[in-house]
């Protein structure tokens, strides 16, 4: 694998390629400040953590970076990347795939699929953590941004490193912001929220929203087949 140029960002050495710069610009165009900061923090946290795990050393660094940066394009507020019939993780994965097909002419199908999988599965850690290293590393970084260093995989993220990153990319009321994003999804495209964690926000915070009759068990129990 080719050696990539690097830079130090918020104390973290990360790859610095034209494609990553374009991914950051795409993310900046479609996400609000809170979501943008979150996605970039997950990139940095993922690189900090993965650097300390031998099994992740051989991963495709550029694919990891792109997946982390673009993983929440399904939160797009412009409306350009959001469908009415797909859950937000799939919207994000599809948007990232189209970006790579457009901008990464030398990427083969496997590299593009790694990014798609990392994004589509990023809220399903019970699957993502058993996939390829690029998918695993992306998920570790995302998880760390929600749990903080004390909940990061293997204790590989220190509070010192966390504080440097958060100073550069403030959280901006992350918990409340994610709640509002998920509630917006429940209000605007509820059919895409019944089979993932988003629906739990709807059931708790969105008036008139319900998971009753929408769970997998409801579908199975309603079947007329023996």
Automatic annotation (TrEMBL):
InterPro entries: HD/PDEase_dom, HD_domain
Domain of life: Eukaryota
Gene3D superfamilies membership: Hypothetical protein af1432 (1.10.3210.10)
Pfam families in the record: HD
Start and end residues of each HD domain: 36-127
Protein name: HD domain-containing protein
Classification lineage: Eukaryota, Fungi, Dikarya, Ascomycota, Pezizomycotina
């Amino acid at each position: 694998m080719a050696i990539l140029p690097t830079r130090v960002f918020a104390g973290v050495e990360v790859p610095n390629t034209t494609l990553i710069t374009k991914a950051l610009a795409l993310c900046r165009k479609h996400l609000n400040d809170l979501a943008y900061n979150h996605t970039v923090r997950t990139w940095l946290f993922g690189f900090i953590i993965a650097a300390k795990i031998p099994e992740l050393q051989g991963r495709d660094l550029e694919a990891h970076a792109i997946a982390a940066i673009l993983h929440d394009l399904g939160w797009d507020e412009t409306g350009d990347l959001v469908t009415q019939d797909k859950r937000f993780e799939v919207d994000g994965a599809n948007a990232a795939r189209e970006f790579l097909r457009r901008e990464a002419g030398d990427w083969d199908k496997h590299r593009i699929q790694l990014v798609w999988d990392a994004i589509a599965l990023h809220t399903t850690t019970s699957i993502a953590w058993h996939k390829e290293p690029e998918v695993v590393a992306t998920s570790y970084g995302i998880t760390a941004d929600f749990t903080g260093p004390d909940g990061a995989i293997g204790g590989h993220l220190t509070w010192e490193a966390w504080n440097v990153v958060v100073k550069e990319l403030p959280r901006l009321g992350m918990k409340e912001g994610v709640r509002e994003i998920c509630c917006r999804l429940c209000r605007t495209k509820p059919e895409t929220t019944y089979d993932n964690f988003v629906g739990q926000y709807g059931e708790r915070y969105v008036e008139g929203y319900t998971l009753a009759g929408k769970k997998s068990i409801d579908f199975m129990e309603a079947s007329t087949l023996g």
